[in-house]
Amino acid sequence: MNRILIVEDEDRIASFVAKGLKAEGFTPTVVGDGIAGLDYALTGEFDLMVLDIGLPGMDGFRILERVTAERPALPVIVLTARDSVTDTVAALEGGAADYMSKPFKFGELLARVRLRLRAPGEPVPDDELSVGDVRVDLRRRRAYIGDREVELSARELTLAEVLIRNRGLVLSREQLLSQVWGYDFDPGSNVVDVYVGYLRKKLGADLVTTVRGLGYRVD
């Protein structure tokens, strides 16, 4: 049973999320203070954290920074009223696995939680994935070419993980949006193409193959 830490100072929202997660079989713990939330997050007892940004005691971005440095294997879903592009980018580049703006639908949050934890009964992922000279360390959330570490954003790393884990299979843009971003973009969005371009530039032009009209594949 997955344990989820909810760091949220609005009692109504915290209670709503906790009750919903408990009904779905998770074990939630609610903390309403930033300092206490960081202490809980660093214990290693939780499988995922839902984190607000505007917290008393300590700002959520500071918590995210510490957790990313000291508990990189802990997925963090940022859930906040701050919805500017600047805040979204800061959270994702700071190590958050996902970002949701308030108000939100619980069903969407639940889908993202399950995406980050993987469905019950699904095999536990290996600690490391590799293809050719490219290696992704899932526990430390790092990518390498040979022995050289390559700096990837949280989103780029997740995209690389999904593609390599499904190597040999063609993944459509819609599948990648669902698995990496956790929600649907405008069908006309080119965000997948842009991020595939980032991976090719950082990990090698031949890493990802474009299958015209279908999607992308790692061989």
TrEMBL record:
UniProt entry keywords in alphabetical sequence: DNA-binding, Phosphoprotein
Family annotation (Pfam families): Response_reg, Trans_reg_C
Chain residues forming the annotated DNA-binding region: 126-219
4-aspartylphosphate modifications at: 52
Gene3D superfamilies to which the protein is assigned, alphabetical: 3.40.50.2300, 6.10.250.690, Winged helix-like DNA-binding domain superfamily/Winged helix DNA-binding domain (1.10.10.10)
UniProt keyword annotation of Oxidoreductase present: no
One GO cellular component term noted in the UniProt record for this chain: protein-DNA complex
Any GO molecular function: phosphorelay response regulator activity
InterPro entries listed in its UniProt record: CheY-like_superfamily (IPR011006), OmpR/PhoB-type_DNA-bd (IPR001867), Sig_transdc_resp-reg_receiver (IPR001789), WalR-like (IPR039420), WH-like_DNA-bd_sf (IPR036388)
GO biological-process terms attached to the record: regulation of DNA-templated transcription
All residue ranges annotated as the Response regulatory domain in the record: 3-117
Residue ranges constituting the OmpR/PhoB-type domain according to the UniProt record: 126-219
Name of this protein: Response regulator transcription factor
Keyword Lyase recorded: no
